């Protein structure tokens, strides 16, 4: 970076990323699904070509105000002065288009598609026409609230929206060389720089929804311009400095003129603005906000070498991962404010677990890996990729989850407002549609999540995704295997350079006690340092082979007994996958089953190629209590244990749930 205070150690991490072709059958299917189905489907929604039924908004916003025909692209046309219509939709709806554009950018890397490219170029042109002279772009404000620009940033999402455009622009410019896309982002950044800062006439506060910080970090890293990282750092440091900032802005703007009345009176922790970040001990408030903030923290810490930001990122990581995260990687224990609650509070049926929050955790983990070679970051990333995120989309790519519970019952979802935000089948779209395109951009960028190249050139192979990678240094790695179904992963490394390359293979915590590593044909006993086993690939080496055999036995897992909701329960896992029982496989109610703590034998696992796109199914002996008669007493003597029978419980990977008949689902099972 052209920086005086930039951290030369970490600044070039993205530039050292390899060019990757995905060969993994598992991920290839998802990438193709997104390119062939999801992106066209999402475009038809965003462009108002397809009517969508909107389920009740899980975040509590009134849905009646939203049309079945989405106006996202139309809003841009109106802002560009090409159509005359009122603004329609969520105030931050432009960001759905930008996430879609970013997903397209990554898709074009996997497959050349002139038609898609033409469409996306047209969207960039439209965005450029909609942008104001001074670089500002937010159609809600341009069409409807032009005199309130930056006047209520607690709720306005203006920097959130522009941050999403900046991310998309960087990705699109990198994928296609489209300078116009990047130019719009630069002008936006200039507008933000003009309006925010320490100057007397400038705004001295951060957006109520973190996002601009991570976006500026991306822009800084892509362009090599330090001013963007400095701006991102300023936004991180200003947060919480003046806890009254939002109230003062709201008062000046008119106290009751809310964009989102529902969030105005949330505590300041909701926006991570109750105190400076360095003083924030726990991950509190809105879960997606926390993950975006933390991604920015880690990224800007790396770019600027700011140790205090790095410490905050680590502290908040620990708060989430050690005390506030579900076994599937999901976060957000309550729908009230889509938020974290308190340590070890992880209810399974009233939880939130927003898809965006798992996507955000994947971003955060990726940035933490770029700061530090620590296996736990890779473990959590893997947990998110195979569980928390993928559950957000149906196997046919046209239905989505916003909220992802670990336990669901159609009767409960309909019968109590406590669970009204939980759906037992995915929806075609949402009034607040932040999740679908977020997931699309994660899946199409999966090639960026396999390796991290550290400042000293060490290559970390942290995700097991079969692929062919060519690094800027000339190193080539062909990774093979049928993960997550099979636990044998091989890397064939060619190192044509004149320096040995340090190659770190992640040893997942779940297999740390039982794995084998073979290096160039012989079994190796490497030291595992913080979750990575390191080997040296000699200079000039061709076809140097590293092979990892993981323990893929089905295992039963319990939570810390500080988690009240999971006490006396077990979950089933195999490799990175969390399993669940569904009513369509097992007669309900599912709470009548109990299982021993012993893992099933080998016979309890079978790959079924024709089920749910091809999945490994786990079966385990269980006792099933006979359901009491409907007209029987509500309370009975405890000595009357009823009758139980021995049955076989059938379980499928959590990410595939709700793709068949509507019914109950549970991850956690009673332990007998
Ligand atoms: O506020 C913008 C987005 O909408 C958030 O990130 C999501 O949680 C949803 O509330
Ligand atoms: Zn979302």
From TrEMBL:
Q: Which parts of the sequence belong to the Non-reducing end beta-L-arabinofuranosidase-like GH127 C-terminal domain?
A: 554-670
One Pfam family this sequence matches: Glyco_hydro127C
Any single GO BP term: carbohydrate metabolic process
GO molecular function terms noted in the UniProt entry: hydrolase activity
Q: Report domain Non-reducing end beta-L-arabinofuranosidase-like GH127 middle positions.
A: 458-552
Q: Does the entry feature the keyword Disulfide bond, yes or no?
A: no
Domain Non-reducing end beta-L-arabinofuranosidase-like GH127 catalytic, chain residue ranges per copy: 19-447
Q: Which domain of life is it from?
A: Bacteria
Keywords, sorted A to Z: Hydrolase
Question: Which SUPFAM superfamilies does this UniProt record tie to the protein?
Answer: Six-hairpin glycosidases
According to UniProt, the name of this protein is: Glycoside hydrolase family 127 protein
């Amino acid at each position: 970076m052209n920086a005086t205070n930039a951290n030369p150690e970490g600044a070039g991490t993205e530039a050292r990323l390899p060019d990757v072709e995905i060969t993994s059958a598992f991920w290839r299917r998802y990438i193709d699904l997104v390119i062939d189905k999801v992106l066209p489907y999402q475009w038809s929604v965003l462009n108002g070509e397809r009517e969508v039924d909107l389920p009740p908004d899980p975040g509590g916003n009134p849905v009646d105000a939203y049309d079945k025909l989405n106006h996202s692209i139309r809003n841009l046309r109106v802002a560009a002065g090409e159509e005359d219509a009122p603004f329609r939709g969520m105030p931050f709806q432009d960001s759905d288009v930008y996430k879609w554009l970013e997903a397209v950018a990554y898709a074009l890397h996997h497959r050349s598609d002139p038609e898609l490219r033409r469409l996306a170029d047209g969207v960039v042109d439209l965005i450029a026409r909609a942008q104001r002279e001074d670089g500002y772009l937010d159609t809600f404000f341009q069409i409807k609230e032009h005199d309130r620009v930056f006047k209520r940033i607690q709720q306005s999402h203006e920097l959130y929206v522009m941050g999403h455009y900046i991310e998309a622009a960087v990705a699109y410019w990198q994928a296609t060389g489209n300078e116009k896309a990047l130019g719009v982002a630069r002008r936006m950044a200039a507008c933000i720089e003009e309006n925010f800062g320490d100057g007397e006439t400038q705004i001295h506060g951060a957006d109520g929804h973190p996002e601009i910080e991570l976006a500026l970090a991306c822009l800084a890293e892509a362009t090599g311009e330090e001013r963007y990282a400095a701006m991102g750092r300023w936004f991180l440091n200003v947060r919480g400095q003046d806890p009254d900032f939002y109230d003062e802005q709201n008062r000046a703007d008119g106290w009751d003129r809310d964009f989102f009345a529902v969030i105005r009176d949330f505590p300041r922790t909701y926006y991570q603005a109750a105190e400076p970040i360095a003083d924030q001990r726990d991950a509190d408030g809105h879960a997606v906000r926390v993950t975006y903030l933390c991604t920015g923290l880690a990224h800007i810490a790396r770019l600027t070498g700011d140790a205090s930001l790095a410490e905050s990122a680590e502290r908040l990581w620990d708060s989430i991962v050690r005390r506030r995260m579900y076994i599937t990687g999901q976060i957000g224990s309550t729908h009230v404010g889509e938020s974290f609650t308190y340590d070890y509070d992880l209810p399974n049926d009233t939880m939130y677990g927003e898809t965006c929050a798992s996507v955000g955790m994947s971003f955060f983990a990726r940035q933490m890996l770029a700061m530090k070679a620590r296996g736990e970051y890779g473990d959590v990333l893997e947990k998110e990729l195979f569980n928390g995120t993928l559950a957000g989309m149906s196997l046919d790519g046209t239905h989505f989850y916003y909220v992802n519970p670990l336990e669901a019952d159609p009767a409960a979802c309909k019968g109590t407002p406590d669970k009204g935000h939980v759906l037992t089948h995915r929806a075609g779209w949402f009034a607040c549609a932040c999740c679908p395109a977020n997931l699309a951009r994660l899946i199409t960028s999966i090639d960026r999540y396999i390796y991290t190249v550290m400042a000293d050139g060490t290559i970390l192979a942290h995700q097991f995704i079969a692929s062919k990678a060519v690094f800027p240094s000339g190193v080539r790695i062909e990774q093979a295997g049928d993960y997550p179904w099979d636990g044998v992963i091989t890397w064939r490394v060619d190192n044509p350079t004149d320096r040995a390359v340090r190659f770190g293979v992640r040893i997942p915590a779940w297999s740390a006690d039982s794995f084998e590593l073979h290096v160039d044909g012989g079994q190796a006993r490497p030291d595992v340092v913080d979750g990575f086993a390191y080997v040296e690939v000699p200079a000039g080496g061709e076809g140097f082979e590293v092979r990892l055999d993981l323990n893929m036995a089905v295992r039963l897992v319990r939570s810390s007994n500080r988690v009240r909701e999971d006490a006396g329960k077990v979950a089933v896992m195999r490799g990175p996958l969390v399993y669940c029982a569904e009513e369509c496989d097992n007669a309900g109610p599912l709470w009548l089953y109990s299982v021993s703590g012993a893992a099933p034998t080998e016979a309890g696992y079978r790959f079924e190629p024709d089920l749910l796109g091809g999945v490994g199914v786990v079966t385990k002996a269980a006792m099933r209590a006979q359901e009491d008669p409907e007209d029987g007493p509500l309370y009975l003597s405890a000595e009357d244990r009823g009758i139980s029978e021995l049955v076989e419980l059938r379980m499928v990977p959590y990410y595939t749930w709700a793709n068949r008949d509507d019914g109950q689902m549970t991850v956690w099972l009673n332990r007998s």
